[in-house]
Amino acid sequence: MEETFVSFGEDVAGHEYAGTQLTYGSYLQLPRLLDAQRLESDPPAHDELLFITIHQVYELWFQQLLHEAETVRDALVGTLAESGGRDLWFSRHLLTRMHVIARTLVQQVDVLETMTPQDFLVFRQRLAPASGFQSVQFRELEFLSGAKDPGYVDRFRGLTAEERQRLARRLEEPSLWDGFVHVLGEAGLATDDDEALTASLRTVFHHRSDYAELWGLAEALLQHDELAAAWRGRHVVMVERMIGARSGTGGSSGSTYLCSRLDLKYYPLLWELRSSL
User: Fold this and answer.
1) Do residues 53 and 156 both lie within one domain?
2) Are 91 and 204 found together in one domain?
3) CATH number, residue 93
4) Global pTM?
5) Residue 3: domain span
6) Are the CB atoms for 184 and 215 separated by under 8 Å?
7) Based on the domain organization, do 132 and 153 belong to the same domain?
8) Phi/psi at 252 (5° precision)
9) 16 φ, ψ to 5°?
10) Closest CA to 225 of 106, 137, 99
C-alpha cells in the first residue's frame, strides 16, 4: 500500500486540497475516521474498541455492497450511463466482487470471536437499547437483493426521517431480481408469472451454451444469496457462543430471532429450480 500511495503522491504533487497538499491521511480523512470509536464503558473495557471497530467495518462493507448492487441493478435494466445500456459482463464482474466482500464479512466473525463472553459482558449492558437489528444499511441490502419486508420499517425503533425515507425508497425501487427478470424478458423468455419464469429458467439451464450470459448471471445471483445465508448462519453461532439464549440488547429474542432468519432466500425460484432440472 505504501508504494501505491507513493505513486499516487507523485501523480498529484503540488495538488491543493482545502488549502493544504493532499496526503494519505487527508485523502482518507483519517483524523475523523480514527476518532469515531467512542467507548461507552467507564472505566474503559479493553474489548469494546474491538467490538466498535468490527461493526464500523461491517457498515463500511455494507456501503460498498450497496454501491455495487445498485450498479448491477442499473446495468441490468439498462440505465447505467457509463455502460451505454444493459451490460451483463459488468454485472457479473461486480457480483463477483460482492462475493469476495461477503466472504470477508464471514471471516470477520473470527476476529470478533477472539473476544471472550466474559469480556463482552463487561460492557454489553451499556449498549442497550442499541442493537444490530437497527442496521439500516443491512436492511437496505436485503431489500435491494429482493427480500423486501415492509413490516420491518414498522418494527424498527429509532429510525430517523432520513433513514425511513431510504428504506421506503428501497421498497419501491427495482431489486436485483427485478433486473434479472428484465434481462430474461429482453432475451425473449416468458416472465409473466412464477410458473412462466420457472419454465424460462429451465430453458436457460438446459441450454447453457445458447444462454451462457443468462446462466452465468443466474448462478452469480444464487452465489450472492448463498453467501448471505452463510453470513447469517455464522452470525447465529457467534451470538450463541457469546451470549447463549439471552435476549438481544435491543429487546429482540437474540439467537432465536436470528435463527428465524436462516431460511430467508433472496431468489427462491433459483433454489426451487434445482428440484426440477
Assistant:
1) yes
2) yes
3) 1.20.58.480
4) 0.86
5) 1-36
6) no
7) yes
8) -75, 175
9) -105, 130
10) 99
**Polymer length in residues for the chain:** 277
Of 74, 270, 62, 90, which Cα lies nearest the Cα of 173? Answer: 74
Q: Closest by alpha carbon to 225, among 128, 145, 139?
A: 145
H or E element at residue 138:
helix 136-145
Give the angle 51-52-54 at the CA atoms, nearest 5°.
70
221 pLDDT exceeds 80? yes
C-alpha cell at 109: 466473525
pLDDT exceeds 50 at position 165? yes
Residue type, 229: A
Cis before 31 (ω within 30): no
Task: State the residue for C-alpha cell 419501491.
Answer: 172
Tell whether 223 and 93 lie within a shared domain: yes
Which sign does the torsion angle of CA 55, 159, 236, 115 carry? positive
User: Is residue 75 located within the same domain as residue 118?
Assistant: yes
Q: Tell me: do 26 and 59 sit in the same domain.
A: no
**pLDDT for 90-129, tens place per residue?**
999 999 999 999 999 999 999 999 999 999 989 988 887 6
Distance separating the N- and C-terminal Cα atoms of the chain: 47
Domain count, the chain: 2
- Do residues 23 and 97 both lie within one domain? no
**C-alpha–C-alpha distance, residues 182 and 218, integer Å:** 13
pLDDT tens column, 181-210 = 999 999 999 999 999 999 999 999 999 999
Burial of 153 (0-12, 13-18, 19+ CB in 10 A): middle
